[in-house]
Each structure stands twice: as structure tokens, then as C-alpha cells.
Specification:
The complex is a heterodimer of chains A (210) and B (397). Chain A contains seven helices and nine strands, in the order βαββαββαβαααβαββ. Chain A has helices at residues 15-19, 44-51, 74-83, 100-108, 118-125, 140-151, 170-187, and strands at 3-10, 27-30, 33-37, 58-64, 67-68, 85-88, 158-162, 190-195, 206-209. In chain A, strand 4 (58-64) and strand 5 form a beta hairpin. Chain A starts with a strand and ends with a strand. Helix content of chain B is 50%, strand content 17%. In chain B, the strands form two sheets. In chain B, strands 1, 2, 3, 6, 11 and 12 form a six-stranded antiparallel β-sheet that branches. Chain B has a six-stranded mixed β-sheet with strand order 5-4-8-9-7-10. The longest helix of chain B has 45 residues, at 261-305. The chains are: A alpha/beta (210), B alpha+beta (397). The A-B interface holds A 54, 73-76, 78-83, 93, 95, 98, 102, 106-107, 109-111, 154 and B 1, 3-4, 7, 11-12, 14-15, 309, 312-322, 395.
Chain lengths: 210, 397
Amino acid sequence: METVLNNVVPVYLEEEKILSSEVWNHHIKIDKYVHIIAPSGRGKSSLMQFMYGLRKEYTGEVIFDNQQIHKKSAEEIADLRGNRLSIVFQDLRLFPDHTAYENITVKRSLQPYNEDQINQMAERLGISNKLKQHIRNCSYGEQQRVAIIRALQQPFELLILDEPFSHLDENNSKLAMQLILEEATVRNAAIILLDLEKVPFYPADSMYHL
Amino acid sequence: MKNNQHISYNTIAAFLNTQSNKGSKFFGYAGLCTGMVLLLTAAQMFININHLIKEKNTRKDGFDFISVTKTVTNENMMKDNRFSENDIKELKQQKFIDDAAPLISNQFRVKASAGNIIPFSTDLFLEAIQSDFIDTVPPDFNWKPGDINVPIVFSADYLEMYNVFAPSQDLPQMSESTISSLTIILECHGPGGIESFRGNIVAVTNRISSVLVPQNFLEWANKRYGNAENIPAARVYLKTKDANSTELLNFIDARQYHLNKDKTKFGRIKQVLEGVITALAGFAVVVIILAMLLFSFYLQLIIERSRQNLVLLLTLGYSPGWLTKTLAKKWTPIYVTIMLIATIVTSLFQLYFVHKMNNRAELSHTLHPAVFALGLLILFLSILINYRMIKKMLYKL
């Protein structure tokens, strides 16, 4: 899947932030590992939401396979999210009243990829004893790892990561990064990682400042 | 696109809050059921009444024949109250009237005498109508110019009347068979003098109170003796599947025509009963609408309470179409159960009604297929409305 950001500009962003950006109002092709560094207030979450088809308040085009995402129907977007596009939200978006395991399986049952590796993944990220716990009783770092495992249950051609390691220590961040890279390689998928600062252990092919 | 086809409702059941507000749910169900029973009962009663009030007499090939005149009132008595060709055309066009035929009458003077056997002589009127409107048409009921014999179909009412008065006038009483051996001399008075024909009574009819001759004879004679052609008729006979049809009566009332009362008296009762039942059906529809409204509030509440989870499911990639279908399907068994209960209760009402009516043969112990069809239609509509409501709410999230 070819993903292109073509002169995307949020309608609500200040002029000088657009002028100084390497992303807004530029033509960017996301075909390998892309790193976008964005200090607060530059519209990082907006970009992520535009790409995931959650918001439409922009000019320019977000293109998947030669089709603008905001021109796709609700069913086409659901298909995209189930089969080709996965995401780790900055605000995680987990079901607080359900267990970590339920949160992962509700995504997994949509379009399972490979055999069930939930336990092994949880083991690797050090949360295997948290799977039966309700999300509201998990720490933010644990929730972040649940969200990462959830994102890896489906087939995808592009993985969007929005500050995925914000509440993880360096060691856990590296473990998570490694798991993500393995899964991306298996799928031959591209990654776009958005963060406040440069993530040193992310092998970016290209880097832009938002 | 067929997203998520393989997923079952159970996958997401835990993420929806359906345990809420049992009261409004129960009242919604009960209301829907009550409304359905009322509506189905009204429909069945409508059919019962139509079965009960159906005349079985004076029928030929399953048709009723009734005569219509224009009502003569003080206001219109000076005008021509006969039927024009357009009037008859309009009658024929009505879907509840299968055919209409004018009864034409003689436009010249006819004197009848019974010859030597019975010393009887009177001015007579003759009428004619399309042969297929007469119930007892013998094969020899025809006439062609030059014939001296004219066949006559005589009213059974007139024969009865004659037999009542005959003894007091020293006249012999006559049976239907003896009357047919009688030859009546018909004297037709015209501008060219008097011509005589020999009238033979070939049949007696219960349907039309008149002295009927073949139509072509009367048309010929009217032209020859009365110098008249295409005379409007004062009386028109209607051929209809059901003389008690409410539609027919409404139409006749609207035109201010006058109908043979006997044959339509049940129709008048039916008119009133149908009005009452229609009002009941209208009430039933209101109850059903209210129940559906209550139900929609209940649905809205469920979706509102599960709003965050539903939004998240959509964000994760669940198809809105699949979610709609899956949620809607959950209520289908409930609707089917409600319809089954309503049908059973209506069936019991019908059994009770038939029992109260002494099991009359016209009534069926089971519900009419149309009532079942109506039940299925409402079931289908409920499921469809439910689906549309869920879809509307989900796509609004």
C-alpha cells in the first residue's frame, strides 16, 4: 500500500507553524520507516487522526492506494482499519471496564493475523500477569503495552505509532520497539512513528520535523 | 462490501450495555403486543362481517342484480330524473359494479287483453333489458321484425298480485305453468293505427318487477309507434358481486340514487359496523405507533449508554453495517415472539366469537389468511424500522 501526504494542512493551524513545518503542505511518501518529530502544539495528533480517517478538517490529500481517505465510505474505512492499517493511539483508547486480554481479543477476532501469540507477546513485554486484570486497574505503562500488542493482532501494511513509549522506561521501550519491528517485517509493512523527540532506537529511513 | 461476516454477536456482547431500563422495555413489548391483537382482531372482524352479511338469493353466477332510480324530491321533481348515457357509463366504470343496463319502457300505448278465455283487458306497460340481466331467460326469448308472436317474461310479483285479486273479480287463479299457455293480445297504438301482436308468457322472474319483452322488439316498436329513439331510462339495473358492498352504497349515496332497499339492508348495517371496526383499527395503529416510539427511546438509551464502547469498536475497525445488522438481529426473536403471541390471542378471540355466533357455517374457526399476511407485514415493518433506527443512531456516533 502506498501512503502519500499531499499538501495536507489543518484548517485550524497557525500560519507560521505551517511555514516552518517539513510535513504540513509538503508531499511525503510513507513507504518504509518514517519518523516524524513534533513538539507539542504542532498538530501531531491531528496528523495521526487525518491518516486514520477520524477527522476531515484539513486541505490537501491523505492518499491510500490512489484514493483519498476522506472519500472512502464508512465500510471501506472499516475494511482499511481491519486489514491494512493499524494504530497505537497516544490516548490508547482501551475499554476501561474490560480485561487486558478482552481488549486484545476484541481486536483480534476482527481479522486475526497468524496464530494466537498474545501470551508470548505479553511475556516479552513483561505484562503476562496483567492480562486478566481490568484496564482501569493497570498502570499507564502497562496499558501502553496492551495497546501495542492489540495493534499487532491484525494484518497491516502501515502501522501508525503516536508516542507509543511515552510511559515506558528505555529498556521496555526497546523491547516493544523490537517486537513492533519484527511484526512489521513479517508483514512487509511501513511504519510512521510520531513522537515529541527523536527515538534513538527507531531505525528510521526518513525523518521530518512537523 | 461484506466486512466482519465471520464474527458473532458474542464477540461484542460484553461491550454493550443492554441491561438497562427493563420497565420501558416491558411496556414497549406489551404495547406492541396489545396493538397487534387489536389490529389483527379488527381485520378478522372485518372479514367475519363480510362473510356473515352476504345475500344468497337472487344470484345468477354469483352476482347480485339491483335496481337503481334517481331519488325524486320536491326540489327535483320538475326536472328529468332519468339516467343519461353518461350516468350509465359512469356506473359501468365503477370497479364494484360489473355491469349496468337501463330498463327501457314503451313510448306508445299498449293495450292487453286475454282474448276469449279470460275477459280481461287493461292498459299495459312493457319494458326491456339486456337478456343477461334476466335470471330466467328461455331460449325462445327473441323476436325479429315480421314476427307476430312476442315472448314475454312476467314478474312473479305481478302474478302473485293477480292471484290475490282474481277470485274477487271472478277471474281464475293461475299457476306459473298455466300462465305460459295463455296468449295475450297486445294492441300497439301508433300514428298509423292499431297493430296487434300475440304475447306468450315464456317465463316468470323474481328479479325484475315488470313485463319484459325482447329488447329489439321494444326498440323497434318505440320507433314505429312512439316515434322515439334512445329514450333515457328511469330505472337502471346493476350487476354486482356484492349488493351489500359498502363502497357501492357510499357511491349510490353520493349520487343521491335510490336503491331497492330490501336487497341492501344488510349493507346498511355493514356500513355502520365497518365504520366502528375501522375506528378500532385506527386506534390499534396509534397504539402500535406509540409502542414503537417507546421502543425507540429504549433503543436510544441502550446505544447512548454504550456510546463510548460503540465508538471505540468502530475506531478499531468494526464495520458500522455489521454492527447495525448484528444489533438489529438481537431483537428479531423478540418481535417474532410478540407477533406469535398476538396471533394466538387473536385466534382465541376468533374461536370465542364463532362459538358465540353458534358456529355459523359462514364463519371460519381459524384466522383468515389475510390476517396472517397482515401480521407478517407488521412483523416485517417492525424489524425494518428497528434496523433503520439502529443504523441511524450508529452512523450518527
